[in-house]
Amino acid sequence: MAQLWGGRFTKETDKLVYNFNASISFDQKFYEQDIRGSKAHVAMLARQGILTAEEKDQIEAGLDGILADVKSGKLEITSEYEDIHSFVEANLIDRIGDAGKKLHTGRSRNDQVALDMKLYVRDEIDETDELVKKLLEALQKIMEENVHTYMPGFTHLQKAQPVTLAHHVGAYFEMFVRDRSRLADIRKRMNTCPLGAGALAGTTYPLDREYTAQLLGFDGPTRNSMDSVSDRDYVIELLAAFSTIMMHMSRFCEEIIMWNSNEYRFVEIDDAYSTGSSIMPQKKNPDIAELVRGKTGRVYGALTSILTTMKGIPLAYNKDMQEDKELTF
Ligand code: ARG
User: Fold this and answer.
1) Which residues does 246 contact at the CB level (< 8 Å), separation at least 6?
2) Residues of the chain with pLDDT under 70
3) 322, 324, 325, 329: which to mutate for ligand 1, most atoms within 8 A of CB?
4) Checking CA distances to 243, which of 21, 72, 135, 184 falls within 20 to 30 Å?
């Protein structure tokens, strides 16, 4: 497969090198964001007179077709392309011919991938926020039903003062409220559009960065082009916020595990949410709570990993940054 950047090369890429370098196996996850970003870019290029209205319509229809076909399963994303950007561009050229080659005008994969990642992270923040909101609703219901359910309050795992279950669960309610506000903070801080930064220092095309930013729901364009293509702070912040959410869930699960034990007998986990033992039929295990507690480690691992990846990277884009994808996904 000829690469996007193959022009000056006289030798085929070594197969091992190709596979090691390729990101399509995972970055195909944001094909929708990639196409959304491209459509905004093309709308802007046409508005600036860099593309004709006809070219814009052709490209848009082509991109919509690719999106629909990937969604329906008619078009498969295969490993013959290096990354999702190459896949979309090659398919577009297949569909509409030469006009497709103009899609990437005034753009580099560096600002493109920075955009895709921001769009993906923003969507992920919104989805996670919705889930945490549902969790809060569930906790609120437990609180409302248990205003008069008395239980021991503990310090040092020793019975200290009487409290109610509503009071106890309310502590978790507060934690998850803070988690939602952390997500909102990140969303606000990251919500600037990197398109137009090009590879690192912009382009000579007269792009309208305000317009693309507006089309994509950003508060405005990013200010520094080198930062635009090499900033992954928002990924770190996301994984830090996710780590905190998981830490809260893990604490909650730890209590469920203890409360469900023979020694406490505070709760009994519903059959639908517990598992049994093949050798000890008397047992009912809190596997699900344990797994939530266990999976917390992975999220911490992702945070540590991205922090470590980023700490030695000089400006601007470096391929190390491709590692942000799998950690985030
Ligand atoms: N797959 C790459 C990534 O995720 C896209 C950017 C490629 N840019 C480059 N200069 N090689 O980071």
Assistant:
1) 292, 295, 296, 299, 300
2) 1-2
3) 322
4) 21
